[in-house]
Write a structure and sequence with these properties.
341 residues; four-stranded antiparallel β-sheet; 40% strand
Length: 341
């Protein structure tokens, strides 16, 4: 692994930052007392990062996460971000309850795209956040090839598609999972979209036509509580899923094991070209006692993937998940987002 990587992770009550300096990994704790819900890097300006918060709107950093300032949406619970790689300074922010905002000047000013609010259905709700149960935009992703195509994942509500930059939205895309935990386009191929979530018969879904139609590959996976997905930057047919067991309601287990630190009963899986899912080991703990909330491909190196666990450990593979090594630092916790720059 190249030591010039910088890792940033949400811990639940702060931001952890790891950077290799003077021959050692240095860990900083930033924004203490702030509940950060999502992180994103500007693909057109990599030192510029954004952090969505539970109640303090959006924060921006222009120095790779060392310092932060407000970037608008004060008071809004920002739950997901998509930064355009087509239009400089364009940010989409998904909020709770379901709503969508766009800025075209790096957070200087904001406009609500009310089409997503109008697309809401009466039965949408979030089982993860009582007592309000309000649904929210869990994931946003922008096509790498069509600047007008956005997709939104709702917990719990489904996967929606927009062809006009978020102005209007489709109904739930049939075949995708209704309970969406992660959703992402492939880095460069706009035909491929991947989803992790919870379903009765699967924990993942994918599209090969830009999000129009979806399939749920089940062989080798069966019923799992899927969370995070990632795909190889050079081979879109190679993709990964972190998943754990479904809660056993008959035994009174209502909280998904994925969120039970120390007893997550989780694994990382790989699918290649539509073949059956493979459960990866190669040095990883079996099972993972802490959920892999983050899966991050190295966009410059095919076959390289990083996995960030809930306890703050980070693992790295250079061979598509066949073997893994643990990196020599701990972020103190990853709940539930990590990025690498």
């Amino acid at each position: 692994m190249s030591d010039n990587r910088i890792f940033l992770a949400t811990t639940g009550k702060s931001l952890a930052r790891a950077e290799y300096l003077a021959g050692t990994w240095q860990i900083e704790t930033l924004l203490s007392g702030t509940r950060i819900t999502c992180l994103a890097a500007d693909p057109l300006k990599p030192p510029q990062l954004y952090a969505g918060t539970q109640g303090d709107g959006l924060l921006v950093s222009e120095d790779s996460g060392k310092t932060w300032r407000s970037a608008g949406l004060a008071g809004a619970p920002v739950r997901s971000l998509a930064i355009s790689r087509h239009f400089p300074g364009t940010i989409f922010a998904g909020c709770k309850p379901v709503s969508l905002y766009v800025s075209q000047d790096s957070g200087g000013s904001w406009e609500e795209l009310t089409g997503l609010r109008r697309a809401r259905r009466w039965w949408w709700f979030s089982p993860a956040e009582p007592p309000e149960w309000d649904p929210f935009v869990m994931a946003l992703t922008n096509s790498p090839t069509d600047p007008n195509v956005l997709m939104a994942g709702i917990e719990l509500g489904g996967v929606l598609r927009s062809e006009n930059g978020g102005r209007t939205w489709s109904k739930h895309r049939r075949g995708a999972l209704l309970d969406c935990h992660s959703l992402t386009f492939h880095h460069s191929d706009g035909k491929w979209v991947y989803q992790g979530g919870a379903g009765l018969r699967s924990g993942a879904a994918y599209s090969r036509d830009g999000g129009y139609t979806w399939e749920q590959p089940r062989e080798g996976l069966a019923s799992k509580y899927g969370f995070t997905v990632a795909a190889d930057p050079a081979r879109p047919e190679v993709w990964y899923l972190s998943a754990s067991a479904q809660p056993n309601l008959l035994r009174g287990e209502f909280t998904p094991p994925a969120h039970n630190d120390g007893q997550a009963r989780a694994h990382i899986y790989r699918s290649v070209g539509g073949a059956a899912w493979e459960q990866l080991s190669g040095g990883l703990p079996e099972p993972l006692d802490y959920m892999a909330y983050a899966l991050i491909p190295d966009l410059q190196k095919t076959g390289h993937l990083y996995a960030g666990l809930a306890n703050g450990d980070v693992w790295h593979t250079q061979d598509y998940g066949d073997s893994w090594e643990q990196l020599p630092f701990n972020l103190g916790g990853i709940h539930h987002t990590m990025i690498m720059i």
